[in-house]
Design brief:
The chain has one domain (3-82). It is built from 1 helix and 6 strands, in the order βββαβββ. The chain has one helix spanning 30-46, and strands at 3-10, 13-18, 25-27, 51-56, 62-68, 79-82.
């Protein structure tokens, strides 16, 4: 089963939530939250759990999606960015 990490704007900074759990981590900046999300995704993938990181903008729209897959053999896991298509007007 794939894990999900979401980075969203919060009232006082940015929140990071794993798999819609009740607990969240809060950071002062989106960059800090995204860095920790990427690190967590890599660690989960190294442990054999595919992980997706969703990054949201302040307006609630999805800014980007990163997928991290478990390593194959001796190859390290890698984060793969998936760009989002702009919404049709």
């Amino acid at each position: 089963m794939s894990r999900s990490i979401a980075v969203r704007p919060a009232a006082f900074g940015w929140s990071l939530r794993i798999d819609s759990q009740e607990g969240v981590l809060v950071f002062q900046t989106g960059a800090q939250a995204e860095l920790v999300a990427r690190r967590l995704a890599r660690r989960l993938a190294d442990a054999g759990e595919p992980t997706e990181v969703l990054i949201f903008l302040r307006d609630g729209s999805l800014a980007g999606r990163l997928s991290s897959t478990p390593p194959i053999g001796d190859a390290p896991c890698d984060l793969i960015g998936v760009s989002e298509e702009p919404a049709a007007a």
